[in-house]
Amino acid sequence: MALSKEERCRELARLVGIPLIExxxxxxxxxxxxxxxxxxxxxxxxxxxxxxxLVFPEEEV
Amino acid sequence: xxxxxxxxxxxxETAVAxxxxxxxxxxxxQAYLARIEQCDGQLHAYITVMRDxxxxxxxxxxxxxxxxxxxxxxxxVPVAVKDQFWxxxxxxxxxxxxxxxxxxxxxxxxxxxxxxxGTVLLGKLxxxxxxxxxxxxxxxxxxxxxxxxxxxPGESSSGSGVALAAHLCAASVGEDTGGSGRGPASYCSxxxxxxxxxxxxxxxxTPMCWYLDTAAPMTKTVQDCALILGAIAGYDPRDPFTSRxxxxxxxxxxxxxLRGVRVGLIRELDEDAGMHPEVKQAIHNAVEVIQQxxxxxxxxxxxxxxxxxxxxxxxxxxxxxxxxxxxxxTRAAExxxxxxxxxxxxxxxxxKVYNRAxxxxxxxxxxxxxxxxxxxxxxxxxxxxxxxxxTALTAPxxxxxxxxxxxxxxxxxxxxxxxxxxxxxxxxxxxTTDNLxxxxxxxxGPFAEELLLGVAHAYEQATSWHTRRAPGIQRSEGRD
Lengths: 61, 480
Description:
The complex is a heterodimer. Chain A has two helices and no strands. The mean pLDDT of chain A is 90. Chain A is mainly alpha-helical. Chain A has a domain at 5-43. In chain A, helix 1 packs across helix 2. In chain B, 40% of the residues lie in helices and 13% in strands. Chain B is built from 17 helices and eleven strands. Chain B starts with 10 loop residues before the first helix and ends in an 18-residue tail after the last helix. The chains are: A mainly alpha, B alpha/beta. Chains A and B meet through helix 1 and helix 2 of A and helix 10, helix 12, helix 13 and helix 15 of B.
């Protein structure tokens, strides 16, 4: 059976060791679902050959 | 000149007035302290006013002037900084109850360099909690936008924007992770610069997202912005990422005109259906002024910029949650509800999704650099709409669409330069019919701040937006 948004959020938080306040679980779940939904749009991009870079080297310019 | 005139001067004008002995550094600091006392109870720009320290520094500066000592272009100028910069022996709250007792034992490099330039530190300015934005109940009061007290001054360098608009300091240094300096500058009709990442040391600046944070000069004029950047930029062994490039004279291009400068209006932001019509019109008017100055203007496409808000949050919030893991595990109850739920949600993002955002960031940088091979300067609005009301900004999110429209949409405009590590500046370019400020954003290639400031200065000098004063905070001649 599929988990609800709140149940999914609670389970993920348990796994990463982040305690949630019960009255705020729905808000965290909305934020998380929205974040994941927005980031899902990035799967449309061809990123196969791109290396992640944290600080761009000056030589590149 | 009377003491009532002093707070209305720019930083550069203040320094000249001190150098030419029209006013003394002590008179300048006293004038600002009086103004802070008069206005800040309502505006909440400051968290800590360093009255005694500022007066002591001003007395010392006065001796230097009387001795005929060497005084530079910022000598004696009262500045205030976002309360995210460490100040030795002075409370540094980061806008959070978590840090309510944090007194650093060292100064941030930015503080040291401001002092070396001869400025006088007036105090520490209010900010959104942990430099994030969206704080519902700021522990040191809600910073009020002097242009409309019911509206936000922008986030997260809120106090810097307020202090400049209300003339409670001559210049400020805020911080910009994804628009935290440029946003408040736009909403408060001030100038805000995000320098190239690595241009200014981040030592002693509490991180929000280590790979995106930069110090951000915030000022009343473009000239002041150039002077402040010149004072704080440069290599610092305590921040190994800082560039070893020499620091140029950032005013070098002032007065050179714009002939030959290629300017590109970013199509995807200009055609954004969510942009407020008066903001769009103001940007088009500004582009026309830039063109009249001799620049070649064209439209330019950066397809991925529309996704910059999502990429930014994917990188910055996930990094931010990781950096604050200890707080989330043990002190989350001390955080404001908005900060807590935002960080908690970001802490749940899987590594593969974060990795995808990091890769998209590189692709975005490639597209920006490609655009910057075709033009020298990029143009857009700093924010798609005028400052919203506090209540609209801090209300809890009701559903995913609400999160999307209020959280992701506006972040594309400023977040794109943070993600690509490129410099960008916001400066006043108009007002709505409700007298709310509108900001013009200019961006350029890596380390092209000199060009950026030159173009911004040419635009500023051709317009008068920066001279308009916020209502309700006019000078009060009768009070001493």
